[in-house]
Amino acid sequence: MHIAIIGAGLAGLSCARELLVARHTVTVYEKHEDAGGRTRTCQTELGGFDFGAQYFTAQSEAFSKRVNAWRKAGWAAPWSGKLVAIGADGTQPAGRGQQRLVAVPGMGALAQQLALAVDVRKGQRVNAIRPHGNQWLLKIESDTVAIEASAGPFDAVILAMPADQAALLTNEPAPELAAQAAQIRMAPCWSLMLAFSEPLGLRYDGAWLEGGRLSWIAQDASKPQRRPGEHWVAHASAAWSEEHLMEDPERAKEKLLRAFHDATGTAVQPVHAAVHRWPYAQAQQTLPGSFLWDRARRIGACGDWFDCGLEGAGRIENACLSGVALAGAID
User: Fold this and answer.
1) pLDDT tens for residues 225-283?
2) Sorted alphabetically, which Pfam families does this protein's record hold (predicted)?
């Protein structure tokens, strides 16, 4: 079969690779210029910033095997940074019970490796899915093409994207699937990237923050194979990000920089500061199972918003397991 996958995050790429092994023809459409979704690395003249996913863990045996293979291939390495929790009771050690890993030399490198064997059409946004007999056509918008174009026909379509977006795209062609995806709400997140010309002198590499504008800060250079320097990433809390979702980026940057200074107790001004708004950063709840698949219509969805038998959602593990499981259901 010729299968279209919409979204080149880790769910879509994991699904694509499994389908290729099963001898299907696969074309992946990605609206951004880079694969990886929320695992992308933001590249600047000062180096890369992991401005989305910060690290990953492995709960299941199946994902642990994949992680071990990535480590042997040199795609991932453990992050042994000192982590703390900062709250009303002060600063306490945290996160000691679980190994955390990162892609090297940046989180975006994992998707780049997974995409090497896959036909990924970057910079192409899918605006609609239309039936074409017992097949599918995609309506594609591209910055390089002035008019909307059609792609296909495809024997099957897989949506590997946040639940909100999957629900919108499938509302007409697959309303039952859309209704299930619409049950999941994705929370936004503002991400702040900072570079300093001098050390901040903080005694930790990452911190979970309670009760303020920020929920997480991390020193990127503490991760393996990163460019040296004082490079920090801060994530705003879901509540603050929701309240300020449509904030002007410059104003959001000012407010989050002030929050970073308040949280760290430092007044050092950065030599580089930038923000990025993730509209669909984290699933607020999970959908039971590992994927959605309408066998009759041959349309389905995968992503980190499925529980995949794990506790919680939004993890790289959920995304990869979901994509692999959906590929296995297609015959």
Assistant:
1) 999 999 999 999 999 999 999 999 999 999 999 999 999 999 999 999 999 999 999 99
2) Amino_oxidase, NAD_binding_8
* 17 lies in the same domain as 141: yes
Domain that holds residue 97: 42-107+186-283
**What is the pTM for the complete model shown?**
0.95
Which residue's entry shows tokens 């107790």? 265
Task: Please indicate, yes or no, whether residues 172 and 66 belong to a single structural domain of this protein.
Answer: no
Same domain, yes or no, for 205 and 263?
yes
- What is the CATH classification number for the domain harbouring 126? 3.50.50.60
Rounded CA separation 268/271 (Å): 10
- What residues pair up with 139 in beta bridges, in sequence order? 128, 150
Do residue 167 and residue 275 come from a single domain?
Answer: no
Answer yes or no: do 200 and 295 share one domain: no
Q: At what angle do helices 61-73 and 316-329 cross, to 10 degrees?
A: 110
Domain count, the chain: 2
**What CATH number corresponds to the domain at position 89?**
3.90.660.10
